[in-house]
Design goal:
Elements lengths: L14 E5 L4 H12 L4 E6 L2 H11 L4 E5 L5 H15 L4 E4 L19 H28 L5 E5 L12 H21 L5 E7 L5 H7 L3 H10 L10 H12 L10 E4 L3 H5 L2
Parallel strand pairs: 1-2, 1-4, 2-3, 4-5, 5-6, 6-7
């Protein structure tokens, strides 16, 4: 990555992988990466029809979709290997795949923890994140790429909750991964950061709580102290572009919170 890119093309010439790119924040980021001149964008997800549609709609010959279940490390390795084989390098890994809960019948408190559901959430949100960081970093080191790895954490990565404890634990794990990986990979010039969204209007949130669109907007707005709008995936993708680009060339191990001030309310 270079520092001579025009300000409106922050990712000019870069090759990027976005896991969870078929919907929500991943999809918004894929579109934003294209706007900022990424040379190749590989969208990875398990939602094949949605992922293929997003790749086609971006309209670039170098935007492709690959099926990848991040809980299967071999699929993650293959995703990275095929990307490098097709495009010669990997500059950016945005690991955004996540799930809110594994069952619609259990909100996962300490006293009624369903450990099989816990295992599923941790497999996606924590284990899958490790696999993405591991294999992206290995190819960056091998090819001497001073790349950027961005993970999706959450505002709950630094607080406790009375429900959805498996989800909260998984996001604490992501923050621990980012802080530890950045320490090790800094020696190779590789930056590792995470973006921590607050309550964002995404399909994941709608599925997690079962809210209708109007109700969802009201809830999202109520969680922010910054009034005048609703936190949307595009707002998060702005932060990801910053962390992926040379604008953040000395940011590493950073937890970039995008929550409209929600965490200020929690901290009171």
């Amino acid at each position: 990555m270079t520092d001579s890119t025009p300000s409106n093309k922050k990712l000019q010439g870069n090759v990027a992988i976005i896991t969870g790119g078929a919907s929500g924040m991943g999809q918004a980021t894929a579109r934003h990466f294209a706007t900022h001149g990424a040379r190749a964008i590989v969208i990875a997800d398990v939602q094949d029809e949605k992922g293929q549609t997003v790749a086609l709609s971006i309209g670039s010959n170098n935007c492709t979709y690959v099926h990848c279940d991040v809980t299967d490390e071999e699929q993650v390795k293959t995703l990275v290997d095929t990307t490098v084989k097709a495009h010669g390098r990997l500059d950016i890994m945005f690991s955004s795949t996540g799930m809110g809960r594994a069952t619609h019948t259990c909100e996962q408190s300490v006293l009624d923890m369903d450990l099989s559901a816990y295992d599923k959430v941790m497999a996606v949100n924590a284990r899958g994140m490790v696999a993405c960081v591991k294999h992206a970093a290995k190819t960056m080191i091998e090819r001497r790429v001073r790349g950027s790895i961005v993970c999706t954490a959450s505002v709950v990565a630094t607080i406790g909750c009375d429900k959805f404890i498996d989800y909260v634990m998984s996001k604490h794990a992501v923050l621990g991964l980012v802080r530890s990986a950045s320490w090790q990979l800094g020696a190779y010039g590789i930056r590792v950061n995470c973006v921590s969204p607050g309550v964002v209007r995404t399909p994941l949130l709608k599925d997690k709580f079962g809210w209708e669109n109007d109700e969802l907007d009201k809830v999202v707005e109520s969680r922010s102290i910054l009034k005048g709008g609703v936190l949307r995936p595009k707002n998060v993708s702005d932060a990801v572009v910053f962390l992926a680009s040379e604008d953040s060339e000395f940011f590493t191990g950073h937890n970039f919170v995008v929550d409209g001030g929600f965490s200020l309310k929690v901290g009171q």
